[in-house]
Design goal:
Layout lengths: L15 E6 L2 E7 L9 E6 L4 E14 L12 H5 L5 E13 L5 E2 L10 E3 L6 H5 L5 E8 L2 E10 L8 E4 L6 H15 L3 E6 L29 E5 L3 H7 L2 E2 L2 E2 L16 H9 L5 H9 L16 H6 L5 H17 L4 E2 L5 H9 L3 E5 L5 H24 L8 E5 L14 H9 L5 E7 L7 H4 L4 E4 L5 H10 L8 H5 L5 E5 L7 E5 L2 H9 L7 H6 L3
Parallel strand pairs: 10-18, 10-19, 11-16, 11-17, 12-13, 12-16, 14-15, 17-18
Antiparallel strand pairs: 1-2, 2-5, 3-4, 3-7, 4-5, 5-6, 8-9, 8-21, 19-20, 20-21
The structure holds adenosine-5'-triphosphate.
The site of adenosine-5'-triphosphate has 16 residues, from helix 3.
Length: 532
């Protein structure tokens, strides 16, 4: 019979590894030991001289008695007592191991039988720290607490390989995105584009639970890493030294209309026909043509080529398109004008590795997608052009798409621009940050392209299953943990970190206070007062 009496005696650990295989460990601990799901433990294999790390994935009651009903018989306690034959069996998932060279590696071997299992000490955290990248988002979580010394940071170089952020509403997605932005402003490793129709990223607002939040401008020490293009009033812009957002007619292409309206087959064909015609020509043609009398053969206006292309379409189809273009101009008149666009400045700021915030508070969902679609297309064209010209250094840009199921769903090709970015972007240094509450409504081919998964509490089993099957690391055994995540907690699976890491995301306000707290940093108001 197995004995749990420790051969080392005294205060030595009674935790000893008894099994099981390369990808799953099992060990027994005393029946009254306090361990929690998600606890990170250290396993010292003194035979091979290796130190393993593992995370508790399950806890079960165990005993050495052959009588299966021992614990339900009357007076059980009286007969047996709760001694060392009654214990807790712990199952754990390996994270990796460190050899004598001090390098952290994926778990490809098994610790020796009866290796000592214990809580890691401060000096052990160096091993976990060495696998982290530059874009800090939180600290490593363990069971009930956190490992304050192990900051979780994503690797900047893998961002072009697309990231997904998955969270049910209220789980802390907005907070995560702001923390991510602040770290990008600090690290300046790639350009990050984010379009905000709610006006909450610039100077804060209210969280989903009603508490006041701060914005990216409050991270005063990182201000050089932020460029804001906004549709807000002159006074707001001047106060915070922001740029005004403009798009011009030539930024527009007919397929952008597909995001704004449902299209019939003939209308779709009109859009496709005009796909590569400059937006200014398309707008001018539709603004100045009377489709009640339009005849391509006798057309004498400024755009004979367009007239020829549209020769075979019915006047009613063309009239509908005319109304839509008028509606599009009306809807977006806050930033869309005939000539003069912010796009070159936006791309320049992205290539200076800044966070570029497009702040369009109060705009409709259609306007948000319209702006995002145009900027995404312009970035893709710019990067494809640079690639063709054989530019020496490839710039990296990450484009955020919030509520991504709207444009990356499995439906019709209404979102070609985004699909193209998802499928081919990485070749040109363009990554997508796909944010959604409903991963199961995202096209599976797009999910398969994502290499970083930030999972923040998904209540729907279908959503969790789809994430587990799409992630490059095995998340299926973390299902219980994902189900029980609290707001602000995440399981992150990413390239460069050899295991899925449970993370307590920083609270944005505390994080920027920490970042701002360096000598020389000033509060936001002070910075503004001295600007004028
Ligand atoms: N890392 C964190 N630490 C502590 N509290 C957090 C953290 N993240 C979020 N919270 C709290 O959880 C609440 C919801 O956060 P947040 O507004 O970011 O959620 P959300 O997922 O963006 O919600 P919605 O989808 O409705 O916008 C807020 O009150 C916030 O303060």
């Amino acid at each position: 019979m197995m004995s749990l009496i420790d051969i080392d005696g005294g205060d030595a650990s009674k935790y000893r590894l008894i099994g099981d295989r390369v990808l799953s460990y099992r060990f027994a601990v005393p029946h009254d030991a306090e361990l929690y799901l998600g606890d990170v433990l250290k396993i010292t294999d003194s035979v091979k001289g290796l130190t393993f790390f593992a995370k508790v994935s399950d806890l079960l009651h165990g005993c050495n008695f052959s009588d299966p009903k021992w614990d339900t018989r009357p007076h059980t306690e009286h007969f047996y007592g709760i001694g060392e034959d009654v214990f807790i069996l712990v199952e754990a998932i390996p994270l990796g191991f460190v050899g004598e060279d001090g390098v952290f590696r994926k778990p490809r071997t098994i610790p020796a039988k009866f290796s000592r299992v214990e809580q890691p000490q401060a000096e052990d955290f160096a091993f976990l720290r060495q696998v982290m990248g530059e874009i800090e988002v939180g600290v490593m979580k363990t069971g009930q607490g956190v490992l304050k010394d192990v900051r979780v940071a994503l690797h900047a170089t893998v961002m072009r390989q697309h990231m997904g952020v998955f969270a049910t509403t209220g789980m802390g997605k907005s907070n995560f995105m702001k923390v991510f932005c602040a770290s990008c402003m600090q690290a300046r490793k790639f350009g990050l584009l984010i379009v905000d129709p709610h006006g909450e990223y610039v100077a804060g607002g209210r969280s989903s639970s009603g508490t006041a939040t701060q914005g990216l401008l409050h991270y005063q020490a990182g201000r050089d890493g932020l460029a804001v293009f906004t549709t807000r009033s002159d006074s707001f812009r001047k106060k915070y030294l922001l740029d005004q957002l403009y798009l011009d007619y030539d930024d527009f292409r007919a397929p952008d209309l597909l995001l704004l309206y449902e299209h019939s087959q003939p209308q779709r064909e009109v859009v496709e026909m005009l796909e590569s015609t400059p937006g200014s020509a398309v707008i001018d043609f539709f603004q100045n043509t009377d489709f009640a009398t339009f005849d391509a053969d006798t057309y004498t206006g400024r755009h004979p080529a367009i007239a020829r292309d549209l020769k075979n379409f019915s006047p009613s189809t063309l009239s509908v398109m005319q109304r839509r273009i008028k509606g599009m101009l009306n809807r977006n008149r806050g930033f869309l004008r005939e000539r003069g666009s912010s796009i070159p400045d936006i791309i320049k700021a992205l290539h200076e590795n800044k966070v570029v915030l497009i702040d369009i508070p109060g705009m409709s969902e259609q306007s948000e997608l319209f702006v995002l679609s145009i900027i995404t297309r312009m970035i893709m064209r710019n990067h494809q052009g640079e690639d063709a010209r054989g530019a020496e250094e490839q710039k990296q840009v990450l484009i955020t798409i919030e509520e991504a199921q709207r444009v990356l769903g499995s439906g019709l090709g209404s979102t070609r621009t985004f699909r193209e970015a998802a499928m081919e972007g990485r070749k040109f240094g363009v990554g997508l940050c796909v944010v959604t509450q409903q991963p199961k409504n995202i096209d599976a081919r797009v999910l398969a392209q994502l290499n970083t998964f930030v999972v923040m509490g998904l209540s729907d089993r279908g959503d969790r299953d789809i994430i587990a099957s799409s992630a490059k690391q095995d998340l299926s055994r973390l299902d219980t943990e994902i189900q029980t995540l609290e707001p602000g907690e995440a399981v992150i699976s990413t390239l460069g970190i050899p295991f899925p890491v449970s993370t307590r995301i920083h609270l944005f306000e505390e994080y920027i206070q920490d970042l701002n707290g360096r000598p020389g940093s000033r509060p936001i108001e002070e910075g503004l007062d001295t600007s004028f």
